[in-house]
Structure to design on (299 residues):
């Protein structure tokens, strides 16, 4: 599995670099895992956080360059600590022992081979809670196929449908082409949501869409696409937590908070389409204070 790193094509950047020999590609990830925080997180969708929290692991680096990234310290500024495959498997076990409902791998794409090895190790040691793949959606289908049997719940973003905005705000002109194929594969691995008696998700797909200022038209096209393609076999999570941060100041059209009426309009639109399985966010989630501190806690 680790030999996937010797000519890395884990994501659509297809850098083809030998990460086992310290060559770095677009995401600047080497052969070692790097993480910036581990915590029991209570602010995910209710079926993920439950009452005890989701055992969340924030990986360093990213294969997108979102100008508004709220986690830019770890995604683009390489904050984090290198750890071994064995240490990650111990972290999984620690989270299970703390009572986490699941293991939540945040932005894991560029570390998939190492993560699979850690999952194998921790399963041998008794890891039994669901494992959740929390991704920006910019994925190669082959990488998602390699996760079959290891991942129980997929939580991909579907950020853009328009190539122009994908390029402008995330440096990924072909985002929708790859994200839509990757989500197809995720749904084929987890075609129907399954919950336990307490309403905690055990298997399934939740597609997240973070609404951006001024892009109501695009957001409507995205939810149209999701509903026509998957109906109620997936859950939709509409996010209003956009905060103008990081390099958003260079783009006046998104350097402002989300218009509350636009978010309500998108919710109405989903209701009219027929969505039954959808999560929405309360007002007040768009604050910098909700951004986690990447202080290496739990690492
Ligand atoms: S995971 Fe990183 S090195 Fe590999 S193809 Fe993607 S951006 Fe390039």
């Amino acid at each position: 599995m680790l030999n996937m790193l010797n000519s890395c094509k884990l994501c659509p950047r297809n850098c083809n670099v030998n990460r086992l020999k310290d060559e770095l590609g677009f995401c600047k990830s080497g052969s070692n895992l790097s993480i910036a925080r581990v915590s029991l997180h209570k602010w995910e969708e209710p079926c993920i956080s439950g009452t005890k929290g989701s055992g969340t692991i924030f990986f360093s680096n990213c294969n997108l360059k979102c100008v508004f990234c709220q986690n830019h310290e770890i995604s683009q500024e390489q904050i984090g600590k290198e750890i071994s495959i064995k240490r990650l498997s111990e972290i999984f076990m620690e989270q299970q022992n703390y009572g986490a409902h699941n293991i939540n791998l945040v932005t894991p794409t560029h570390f998939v081979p190492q993560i699979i090895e850690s999952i194998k190790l921790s399963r041998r040691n008794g890891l039994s809670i669901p494992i959740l793949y929390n991704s920006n959606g910019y994925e190669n289908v082959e990488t998602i196929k390699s996760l079959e049997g290891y991942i129980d719940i997929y939580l991909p973003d579907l950020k853009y449908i328009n190539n122009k905005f994908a390029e402008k705000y995330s440096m990924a002109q072909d985002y929708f082409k790859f994200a839509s194929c990757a989500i197809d594969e995720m749904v084929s691995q987890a075609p129907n949501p399954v919950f336990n008696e307490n309403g905690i998700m055990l298997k399934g797909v939740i597609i997240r869409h973070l609404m951006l200022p001024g892009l109501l038209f695009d957001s409507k096209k995205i939810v149209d696409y999701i509903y026509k393609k998957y109906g109620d076999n997936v859950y939709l999570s509409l996010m209003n937590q956009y905060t103008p941060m990081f390099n958003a100041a260079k783009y006046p059209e998104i350097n402002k908070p989300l218009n509350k009426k636009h978010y309500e309009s998108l919710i109405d639109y989903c209701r009219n389409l027929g969505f039954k399985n959808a999560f929405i966010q309360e007002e007040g989630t768009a604050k910098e204070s909700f951004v986690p501190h990447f202080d290496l806690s739990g690492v």
Observations:
- The CA atoms of residues 166 and 173 lie 5 Å apart.
- DSSP finds nine helices and ten strands in the chain.
